[in-house]
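Appendix C: a fully annotated inverse folding record. The material below is reproduced so that readers can follow the format used throughout the book. The structure is listed first as tokens, followed by the designed sequence.
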């Protein structure tokens, strides 16, 4: 195998493919990236038996072939190369990278031991890649990180007609986002699948510069064994990612969303974020920040008499009876940071019931769909003493 490629193109392709590499591979070959050259096309692939990444780019090929090399080393070398064309040659069990005056020689691993990558499933539809990346980021922040509860480590993806719904929860907060998409068939069946949150967020962010993103599904029924794929192209580079769906039952989250409110507050996101950060400085790790809502004012406090204490007041628009509640400060900051508008709307049923955060309608930073109310963040309050 022998080819020449631009340095930046190679570095970007290797960085993309290396995303699926496991930090602790179960078998040595899973630490490698597979390089395949056919005609004038180079494919770089990574696979950890659960998720795969693959990217195609044009190269000046002299000899076709395949090689499997350490993905970590190849990624580090590609980033460090000088700004010159890169020549890659495989001779026996060694791969040589030459760029300007720099030259690296890497041992190869047996290609025949590398597992076959999963095929891209059948196309289900396309979505605006930038809006999808934003939606995934807004929702994935609420996904759990405890692998012993797999149903909480995923993002539920619901397809119905021309609407996508994303939802995630870790039992303490819930995030839901709806957005428009273009199904491949007008009569496509509805689908509900559970996608690993980390893999979904990484794929969505990485493909956000594509003009559109294609979503492919091998299963259109509920959760269970299946594969979901994402693909897009930019700057002459075609990228694909797949991941195995989680075989777990996602909580019935819609029943958690209140439909009536006793009180509402509207507050500027920026000042509230800064106030929460300041007040939380005196709180122990995960200790709550207390919020007192009353007519035209919000009082924030944290700490106690036997430790440091902080207090701050903000002007807000508030309707309803006075309410005192408390939240884990990081959970509150995560929700505020995900809002696509400069003003947050907080909806209350009572002081000890979940609070809903939504962007105000027509927010200056609403998504491409123009409907900023398609995002909901629900957060459980922390019970206060007494």
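Designed amino acids, in order:
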């Amino acid at each position: 195998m022998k080819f020449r490629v631009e340095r930046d193109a190679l570095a970007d392709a290797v960085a993309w493919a290396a995303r699926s590499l496991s930090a602790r591979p179960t078998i040595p070959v899973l630490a490698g990236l597979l390089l395949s050259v056919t005609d004038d096309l180079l494919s770089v692939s990574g696979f950890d038996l659960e998720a795969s990444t693959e990217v195609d780019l044009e190269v000046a090929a002299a000899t076709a072939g395949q090689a499997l090399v350490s993905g970590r080393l190849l990624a580090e070398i590609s980033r460090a190369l000088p700004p010159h064309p890169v020549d890659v040659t495989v001779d026996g069990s060694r791969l040589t990278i030459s760029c300007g005056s720099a030259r690296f020689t890497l041992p190869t691993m047996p290609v025949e031991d590398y597992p076959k990558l999963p095929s891209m499933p059948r196309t289900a539809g396309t979505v605006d890649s930038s809006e999808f990346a934003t939606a995934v980021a807004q929702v994935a922040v609420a996904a759990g990180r405890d692998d012993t509860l797999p149903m909480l480590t995923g993002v539920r993806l619901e397809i119905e007609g021309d609407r996508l719904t994303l939802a995630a929860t870790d039992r303490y907060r819930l995030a839901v986002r709806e957005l428009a998409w273009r199904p491949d068939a007008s009569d496509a069946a509805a689908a509900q699948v559970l996608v690993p949150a980390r893999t979904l967020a990484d794929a969505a962010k990485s493909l956000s510069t594509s003009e559109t993103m294609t979503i492919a599904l091998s299963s259109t029924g509920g959760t269970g064994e299946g594969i979901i794929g994402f693909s897009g192209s930019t700057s002459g580079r075609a990228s694909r990612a797949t991941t195995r769906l989680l075989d777990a039952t996602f909580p019935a989250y819609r029943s958690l969303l209140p439909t009536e409110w006793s009180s509402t507050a509207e507050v500027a996101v920026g000042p509230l974020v800064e106030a929460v950060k300041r007040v939380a400085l005196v709180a122990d790790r995960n200790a709550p920040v207390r919020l007192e809502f009353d007519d035209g004012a919000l009082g924030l406090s944290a700490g106690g008499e036997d430790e440091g204490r902080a207090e701050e007041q903000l002007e807000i628009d508030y309707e309803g009876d006075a309410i005192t509640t408390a939240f884990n400060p990081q959970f509150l900051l995560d929700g505020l940071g995900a809002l696509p508008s400069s003003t947050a709307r907080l909806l209350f049923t009572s002081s000890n019931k979940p609070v809903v955060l939504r962007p105000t309608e027509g927010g200056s930073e609403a998504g491409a769909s123009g409907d900023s109310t398609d995002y909901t963040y629900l957060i459980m309050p922390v019970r206060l003493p007494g």
